[in-house]
Design a protein that fits this description.
The chain is mainly alpha-helical and 299 residues long. It is 78% helix and 0% strand. The chain contains 13 helices and no strands.
């Protein structure tokens, strides 16, 4: 019995150290870049959004808002209050929708994390999240053009934690918060990926997520809802699944539904949207992720 446990531990440690060595420096680089953007560029990015003219081109505004959303270092929890301040400044709902959607799905830190998955997966993630923001803005523009889609009455602009007068101290304090926020999930993600590689057969991953079939994309779209907790923590898991036969389309679907339906932040989103619009949001995310996954697999 002890010999079996020792053997299993050796296998687990091998897979754990393999994943750790492949991803660790991307995690470190992601935190460094994320903190740099948050401390030194966040206000400038948000100022560009706040200064958008309400009489400007709606379509170009949607595209620009989606770009700013990807560049913003905020996750869903921070995006909603800042969007509330944009709304009070007179920013159009379709621009808010585009900014919020792309910001929820992606940020500079997560882009660096995702580089660990390879150039192809990284490009797919950036393009699909950017397009999701644009499509969200277009939907609000043409489907809800006569109605207000958001209700930000109970939200104020978030308190800025980066207030230390010394810029280096601001950066290191932000980096420390980043480490505390992502470190445990990163470790759990590597542990889970090692367990998947050791105990889940390749055939099972390929059956659930592989090939060009709609079933794999649908499974990835739905499993992203309960499983996704932290962007950095899911990178090792996605990497393991891709190595074991997950299709690129299924990975894209998972990377859209996961952050968009993150359980810890959905309560605030429901308050902002209301019951009907909240249900519409869920339907939009699932449909967009499913269609995106199918198209990517066909390509």
């Amino acid at each position: 019995m002890l010999e079996i446990l020792k053997t299993e531990w050796i296998y687990f440690w091998y897979y754990f150290t393999l994943q750790f060595s492949q991803i660790f420096w991307y995690w470190v680089a992601g935190m460094l870049i994320g903190s740099l953007v948050s401390v030194f560029f966040k206000d400038k990015i948000h100022a560009l959004m706040r200064n958008m003219k309400s009489d400007g081109s709606s379509i170009l505004g949607i595209i620009f808002a989606s770009i700013l959303g990807v560049a913003s270092p905020l996750c869903m929890y921070g995006t909603i209050p800042i969007a509330a301040s944009f709304s009070k400044s007179g920013i159009k709902d379709e621009w808010l929708a585009s900014f919020m959607m792309s910001s929820i799905l992606l940020n500079p830190q997560l882009i660096i994390y995702s580089a660990a998955l390879g150039a192809k997966v990284l490009c797919v993630r950036i393009i699909s999240c950017f397009l999701c923001g644009i499509v969200a803005g277009l939907v609000i523009r043409f489907v809800f053009k006569e109605k207000s889609f958001f209700n930000f009455q109970n939200f104020d602009e978030p308190k800025n934690k980066d207030i230390d007068p010394n810029p280096f101290m601001r950066f290191f304090k932000n980096l420390w918060r980043n480490l505390k926020a992502t470190g445990l999930y990163f470790l759990i993600g590597i542990i889970l990926s090692a367990l998947f590689q050791r105990y889940i057969p390749q055939e099972a991953i390929r059956f659930v997520f592989g090939g060009n079939e709609a079933w794999g994309v649908l499974m990835a779209s739905t499993i992203g809802v309960p499983l996704y907790v932290c962007g950095g923590g899911t990178i090792p898991i996605i990497k393991s699944w891709l190595a074991n036969g997950m299709s690129l389309g299924s990975a894209a679907a998972f990377m859209i539904t996961g952050p968009a339906t993150k359980i810890t932040n959905l309560g605030a989103l429901k308050v902002v949207l209301g019951a009907k619009h909240f249900a519409f949001y869920w339907l939009f995310v699932i449909l967009f992720s499913f269609i995106t996954g199918i198209v990517i697999n066909l390509i």
